[in-house]
Amino acid sequence: MLDMGTLSVGQYNFVGNAFSFGLAVMAATTIFLWLMRNEVAPAYRMAITITGLVTAVAAYHYLQIMMSWNAAVDISSGAVVSTGEPFNQAYRYVDWLLTVPLLLVELILVMKLTQSETWRKSLTLGGAAALMIILGYPGEVAESLGPRFIFWILSMIPFLYILYQLVIGLKDSISKQPENVQQLIKVAIYLVVASWAFYPIVYLFPAIGLTGGAAVTAVEVGYTVADIVAKAVFGLLIFMIAVRKSEHETGKASTAAKKS
Amino acid sequence: MLDMGTLSVGQYNFVGNAFSFGLAVMAATTIFLWLMRNEVAPAYRMAITITGLVTAVAAYHYLQIMMSWNAAVDISSGAVVSTGEPFNQAYRYVDWLLTVPLLLVELILVMKLTQSETWRKSLTLGGAAALMIILGYPGEVAESLGPRFIFWILSMIPFLYILYQLVIGLKDSISKQPENVQQLIKVAIYLVVASWAFYPIVYLFPAIGLTGGAAVTAVEVGYTVADIVAKAVFGLLIFMIAVRKSEHETGKASTAAKKS
Q1: Which strand (E) or helix (H) includes residue B76?
Q2: Alpha helices, DSSP H only, in chain B?
Q3: Chain segment B195-226, per-residue pLDDT in tens
Q4: ipTM of this model?
Q5: How distant is the Cα of B14 from the closest Cα of chain A, in angstroms?
Q6: CA-CA distance, A113 to A174, in Å (whole number)?
Q7: How many angstroms separate the CA atoms of A153 and A126, rounded?
Q8: B20 and A91 in contact by Cβ < 8 A?
Q9: Which of A27, B40, B224, B234 qualifies as a cystine partner to B44, CB 3.0-4.6 A?
């Protein structure tokens, strides 16, 4: 449990503003994706729908996180005073349990692999992602540092498996994509790898003695930035990939029509 | 009535997080189904619309359950203190009374039986499901264990009738489905049978002396998981069946068009 009393009023407000920013970005991305989904070819509409679902679920959780943050604290004569109601950090896990598997499913769907490959990769990557989050939770809510280390290590196993699958396992499938999207897909994967790397590092902060107001501020703002990159920026890349692939395929279709 | 004071803060928060997760899953599934409903053939759009209604009604009730859970307790100096307002378990029954008959209707609609069979099966299965929930309610809210047992037994009669109808009564209709969906329909039925089996077992927990914080946590998280499987996962299977049947029929239609 966070000791909210160690936060300065400035730090407390800064984190609250970051949460509100996160909510606005996620909600705006959702609306953009859902309004634009009919502009891509039918084959990519499920990918775009799910991409918007991920940011919608994240928007909901940022609302919950923001409300929990507000309920945990009273500001009284220029100081942050804990109300006794704990700030619920676990909302992040509830969010990730749903959104992280779906993020990988978006990427797989927009690649339009064969039906059996889509299933296989969605199940293995999505399952590994869910396992990673479930294994992280007991360490996050544990009162002592021992379990935090143990569950960090356990959670890293599916994490590394996912990274391996993304960077190495998808190589063949990427090489079969149209040339003008290969680069975009690689950028999307690097974005996942880079933004995800933030989470296991932050997870260890309390274990290495980083506590107090500055650490809480860094963790919460850092998570918010990482979430925005991993969900909203990543989602917009998925949308761009779907648009280019739609153009590519319509182009081929109309060339074929002209030839016949 | 639950004695909320027997819960630890960790248990209380875990259940609250499970409710929030349930709400997010149900709402996300609803949006997915309603956004994707035009991607299936017109014959299956009613099934998909109703599938989304089931998860929408469930999302509403998880919001109510979550708010009731929050209102029942104050967390004060690290302990769970009952506010005196009881946690309203009856919301689950209100939800089931509407969603459980509709779940069976989804399954019947996606099978696209003859009009008279669709009517007959919807009325008998839907009616039995409503009866099952109505008979369960007096036992759930009863203060003593006698009525709990009696209404459990009464409620099991329509429950077993439904299971029989699903596993045996639908056999003929399943064998008439396209080959590539027969397996999916069977999985959907097994999912119903397996997830529904959880409810009558949990119903008996108080009767066999399972009370206290751990039992409450197990019951509430268990119901939530069973609801997610029976409504959201089941709903996505119904969607997949509708997609495959649409493809199958469009395939047949274009083959027929070529022949003529």
Answers
A1: strand B73-76
A2: 9-36, 45-71, 91-111, 115-141, 145-164, 171-175, 179-203, 212-227, 234-259
A3: 888 888 888 887 777 778 888 898 899 999 99
A4: 0.86
A5: 8
A6: 10
A7: 19
A8: yes
A9: B40
Q: Of B20, B27, B35, which has the smallest distance from its Cβ to A34's Cβ?
A: B35
- CATH 3.40.640.10 is held by the domain A4-255: no
Q: How do strand A79-82 and strand B73-76 relate by DSSP bridges?
A: unpaired
* Residue in B111, B236, B104, B242 with CA at minimum distance from that of residue B162: B104
Residue pLDDT tens, chain A, 260 long: 567 778 899 999 999 999 999 999 999 999 999 999 999 999 999 999 999 999 999 999 999 999 999 999 888 888 888 888 888 888 999 999 999 999 999 999 999 998 889 999 999 999 999 999 999 988 888 878 888 889 999 999 999 999 999 999 888 889 999 988 999 999 999 998 898 888 888 888 877 777 788 888 988 999 999 999 999 999 999 999 999 999 988 877 666 655 55
- What are the DSSP E strand ranges found in chain A? 73-76, 79-82
Burial readout B120-133 (b: 16 or more C-beta within 10 A, e: otherwise): ebbeebbebbbbbb
Q: What is the C-alpha separation between A169 and A107, in angstroms, rounded?
A: 13
Chain A residues whose C-beta is within 8 A of a chain B C-beta are: 34, 37, 42, 45-46, 49-50, 53, 56-57, 60-61, 64, 84-86, 88, 90-91, 93-95, 97-98, 141
Please give, rounded to a whole number of angstroms, the shortest distance from the CA of B171 to a CA of chain A.
27
Q: Are the Cβ atoms of A98 and B13 closer than 8 angstroms?
A: no
Question: What are the sequence ranges of the domains in chain B?
Answer: 4-255
Looking at residue A13, its amino acid is N
CA distance A14 to chain B (A): 25
How far is residue A193 from each of residues A10, A96, A99, A198, B55, measured CA to CA in Å?
32, 15, 16, 9, 33
Q: Do A85 and B77 touch (CB under 8 A)?
A: no
> Chain A contacts of B83, Cβ < 8 Å?
none
Note whether B79 and B131 are within 8 A (CB). Answer: no
| Residue of chain A whose alpha carbon sits nearest to that of B32 | A49
Interface with chain A: mutation pick from B12, B13, B21, B81, highest number of A CBs within 10 Å: B21
Query: Can you give the three-state secondary structure of B14-55, one letter per residue?
Result: HHHHHHHHHHHHHHHHHHHHHHHHHHCCHHHHHHHHHHHHHH
Cα–Cα distances in Å, from A116 out to A108, A120, A122, B8, B40? 12, 6, 10, 45, 20
Would you state the structure tokens that stand for residue A71, as one six-digit string? 């309920």
Which has the closest alpha carbon to B29: B231, B204, B177? B231
